[in-house]
Amino acid sequence: MDIDFPNGKKLRLVIGDITKIRVDAIVNAANSGLRGGGGVDGAIHRAGGSAIMRELDEVRGKTGGCPTGSAVVTAAGALPAQYVFHAVGPIYRDGRHGEPAQLAACYRKCLELAEERNVRTISFPAISTGAYGYPAQEAANIALETVAAHLDGAETRVREVLLVLFDAGFYQLYQRTASHSLSNWIK
Ligand code: ADP
User: Which residues are catalytically annotated?
Assistant: First the structure.
């Protein structure tokens, strides 16, 4: 499903494996230790190769890791991209411990990093919805609203944002949510 903004920018919902789709920057759902894990993180390190972890080791050595709601940049190794933005989503407790703001901050931070690096196309997984337990519907609302607000802005270099959903259930949920909340722009 494509959502076209009047300024020519595009938000696309895609089913698939984020490591297989060519973009300028791939967002990883990382953890604050930047040590790799399961889910998307495991897939990105497997497909990208060990150079990515070597770069993260350096970042960790300097900063100790990455706080929740933020992201760090590495090259993309063997992935079909130039950069990986390792974003640290919140671990979901009950939604009343700052999780919505932290999840929105992840998306915003990656979009800022993209703008700084002249990234035109960027793909996001559904951050925090796997091991970190964020309810899918609430995560979909936040992801769609935050990305749409950015793309609707005047001076963005980012032209296309892909939200890559790993299975059909997530894809349908995101599609339904987009049809409601982004109805002005749906083709
Ligand atoms: P988190 O720890 O932030 O919850 P996970 O990697 O456990 O991160 O899960 C985040 C989302 O990414 C889940 O919806 C999961 O189904 C999905 N996912 C897992 N592997 C991939 C992949 N290769 N491409 C895209 N999405 C994936």
Answer: 41
Write out pLDDT tens, residues 95-124. Answer: 999 999 999 999 999 999 999 999 999 999
Distance CA 36, CA 17 (A): 17
Structural domain for 96, as ranges:
2-179
d(CA 60, CA 74): 12
Q: Whose CA is nearest to atom 1 of ligand 1?
A: 128
Tens of pLDDT, residue by residue over 136-163, are 999 999 999 999 999 998 789 999 999 9
Q: Are 119 and 143 in contact (CB under 8 A)?
A: no
Residue 76 lies in a domain: yes
The alpha carbon of 18 and the centre of ligand 1 are apart by a number of angstroms equal to 9
18 Cα nearest atom in ligand 1: 24
27 touches 71 (CB < 8 A): yes
Q: 88 and 66 in contact (C-beta within 8 Å)?
A: yes
Domain count, the chain: 1
Instruction: Tell the residue nearest (CA) to atom 6 of ligand 1.
Output: 39
CA-to-CA distance for 176 and 158, rounded, in angstroms? 24
CATH number at residue 27: 3.40.220.10
Instruction: Compute the distance from residue 172 Cα to the ligand 1 centre, in Å.
Output: 16
Q: Angle 50-63/39-48 helices, nearest 10 degrees? A: 120
